[in-house]
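INTERNAL AUDIT FORM
Audit reference: QA-55
Scope: verify that the stored structure record matches its stored sequence.
Auditor: D.O.
Record contents follow.
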Amino acid sequence: MRFSAPKRALAQTTSVLALAAALATGTTGLLTGTAQAATVASGSLSFSGDPGDYISGGGSYAYATIARDGFDASASTDDRVVSVSVSGANGDWWYLDLAAPAGEVLAPGTYTGATRYPFNEGAEPGLSLDGNGRGCNTLTGEFTIDDVVFGPEGYLKTLDATYEQHCEGGTSALRGEVHIANPEPPAALDLGLAVAVDGTASALDGNATVHGTVSCNKPVQVTAAGDITQVKQRQLIRGSYTTSVACVPGAPVAWTATALPTGSVPFQKGKVEVKAQATALDPDYGQYVTANQTVTVTLAKVKKS
């Protein structure tokens, strides 16, 4: 997620106006597979440009969390791209993206031959520093990653990097550095799912009831759902079930669910195939986590529903 760009009157070429519009509507930034940006605990971003550099106007800029400037940071879930958003206390706004070539993980080292992110292709690293209504249509440059540490699901713990970019193939350069430091990341949600090998088939309404347990490493609401399939006398009997339980770390939490047969033939005593999936939202990373099981269960016939 990026900060919304302030509305400013821009006297630029048509192509640059199109870029500014994209910035204002939030259409630039990390591509799919990116976690939601998180507020940075400690960070700084600074840069300066040669005379003639379009982005900096030949000036120098510096921002830091200690100066009450706002910082957000995130990484792609494949650890290839990092993105930093700055909302200056003075109203400035800047976005920085650094990307390894396709198929690679961003790691310490110098990346040369960078082109404008997210339009870099193949072996090209990606780079873009834009904001305050200014952006390069095309750019060349390089950046050096001194340190980068990722956590789960796009969490960015540490970033120390320097960068240099040239707009539109020009010789004038913008040079800067960025430093991000966040606490140790929370553990990713770990779900466990078990299906008991015994269940019941109701002689009253033909429903099948199955049960099991879920486990977790942080408090979450877990949905257990799935399908029950049985073959009796060449007839296929099917039904779906769903239930929800509150899971807390420690001991496994029991769940029970009932499936109604979809047709006129009831579930019966004997073996069934139970497909089960547990699903919960990781509260720290905003990602859904699942666990799956397929188990053969023996149903006992009961007279009560």
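Auditor finding: record pair retrieved intact. The chain has a mean pLDDT of 89.
Action required: none
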